[in-house]
Amino acid sequence: xxxxxxxxxxxxxxxxxxxxxxxxxxxxxxxxxxxxxxxxxxxxxxxxxxxxxxxxxxxxxxxxxxxxxxxxxxxxxxxxxxxxxxxxxxxxxxxxxxxxxxxxxxxxxxxxxxxxxxxxxxxxxxxxxxxxxxxxxxxxxxxxxxxxxxxxxxxxxxxxxxxxxxxxxxxxxxxxxxxxxxxxxxxxxxxxxxxxxxxxxxxxx
Length: 205
Fold this sequence. Notes:
Blueprint: H1 12-26, H2 39-55, H3 61-75, H4 78-86, H5 95-117, E1 124-132, E2 136-145, E3 149-160, E4 163-171, E5 174-175, H6 176-188, H7 193-203
Antiparallel strand pairs: 1-2, 2-3, 3-4, 4-5
């Protein structure tokens, strides 16, 4: 059976919290043009904006979700993430199937974690710039809270169309992209690409 998870032997419950918190921060990272600010400053600014959305009691649920989804769609390179997660089968698909897969993959990620994001409570996040080159950067985050303890997270970004965008998230050394690549590879060894699309769509409802 196809499972989308981050299995970690001996502590699955803690790691589910880790993935949730990484996604929480992951959703808070709009990256404006390079000339406007660097990746670290953009991360901090984006966090403040989404926290403001979460704390706005006058905003209804659907409007809030739409704003958060706009941040995700406008500022994250889901095509790059989806392509890396799929691996070689990406090149075997026609363009329309590739775009259908990217859409299903991004909908899946958003759908899995949006409910938990809206229950964000007392966790704090501290950022520092790990690396910055002309076209690639790494922002490191330390998430801390009563339920999760301390979780180090690494956001890998690249500069595309003069915007910094996340293309992978690494949690305690585990890459989100590589994790999904392993799961997709195992699933496609027994099923078709259309089966993968259907399963992603089912899990994004």
